[in-house]
Amino acid sequence: MRNLAVVGAGVMGRGIAYVGALAGFNVYLQDINEAALDKAKNDIEQEMSKSVQRGYLQQQQVEEALPRIFYTTNLEKASREADLVIEAVLEVMDIKIDVFKKLDQICPPHTVLATNTSTMSPTEIAAQTSRPDKCVAMHFFNPVHKMKLIEIIRGLDTSDETVELAKQVGSRMGKETVEVNEFPGFVTSRMNCLIGNEAMNMLMEGVASAEDIDKAMKLGLNHPMGPLELADLVGLDTRLRNMEYLYQTLGEKYRPCPLLVKYVKAGRLGRKSGRGFYNYENRQDQ
């Protein structure tokens, strides 16, 4: 395992590229948008610099890792020599399937194709390829360089060898892994979406302020981040797509909170837009 390709240079894609380069992989980060690649490059360099200043990384690690990351808009260039490709595009099934179909044509026969989906079926995605045994879901968490877990979700035809390879890659990146049998939402997203949706319903009903709901969860239940803060970090549009998928597949208890729908329609998408359940435009910790 030497060459890693990451498709999609958003928050998750650039985070995966970051930890991949530090783990010693040659990483191709691909996106159709040149501006997204420029932002990813800038964010990765800034985050590594901050990590050196805070003592989490040595300067030598950064100097070795940064030259391992290559940025391109060309999917074939990124993936034609990859041993593993991790797709990190929008949580839209049609987009993911389209990416996997293209990768299946481009990549060598040995290449493992992984999706970073947090809710969707790796079986359905893998079925569109000629290598369903080499397809798997590797669900990373945001922010990738800090969060220790990868959920590894086995599709119907995923081989034991593919699961083992995914675990080895996770270990090399310094992550713990859990193996999950496919079911909508897996483990963490099913729980997290329920908690977050209920927090949004309480806010809508006037039970408590966003600040106090989050404070109660952090101090009363020992959550490291409140559910509304977390939704803002993930992106409210992403959370809404996840909720809509779980609502379709698992039923009424996952019906998206009307307040979440309203915020997305208003363009309040969380940290990335400057405003969600909190206002980040003038915050120093954004």
TrEMBL record:
It is an enzyme of class 1 (oxidoreductase). It comes from the Bacteria. One of its GO terms (molecular function) is 3-hydroxybutyryl-CoA dehydrogenase activity. Its EC number is 1.1.1.157. Pathway: Lipid metabolism; butanoate metabolism. Residues 4-182 form the 3-hydroxyacyl-CoA dehydrogenase NAD binding domain. NCBIfam families: PRK09260.1 (NF006722). This is 3-hydroxybutyryl-CoA dehydrogenase. InterPro entries: 3-OHacyl-CoA_DH, 3-OHacyl-CoA_DH_NAD-bd, 3HC_DH_C, 6-PGluconate_DH-like_C_sf, 6PGD_dom2, NAD(P)-bd_dom_sf.
